[in-house]
Amino acid sequence: MTTTDAQRLHLLEAARRTWDEEAADTLLAALPPAADDLATTDDVRVASSELRREMAEFRTEMRTEMAEFRTEMRTEMAEFRAEMRTEMANFRAEIKAEIAELRNDMVDRFAQQDRHLADVQRFLLIAMVTMLISAVSLAFAAARFA
Description:
Elements: H1 5-18, H2 21-30, H3 41-145
Helix pairs in contact: 1-2
């Protein structure tokens, strides 16, 4: 049974005559709203169906966005890996060049050391031969003047 606004107003006035104004207002607030404001089973079904449709759309939208995000991340990671490989290859090439340069410097230094040692050996050999000749000459001179 639905109540009209006139019936609700009549009930409120009767309650105010019988009880105080606050109790009458509480009674009216506890009553359900007009029948036009109540949701029917069909209204709930329609709202539920619409909510399900919106949720399905949202899920589809989220799946699409997540797929796009994954694709974007894969692309960026592939680019990053390629960039890192290039950087590492360049770094390895630089290191190899540095090592080759150090190796050449070491070969040059060893060659300088070998030449220096050869010069020292020649000097010592000449010095020893000269000393030996001088010693023999002194021995002959001493033997001759003796």
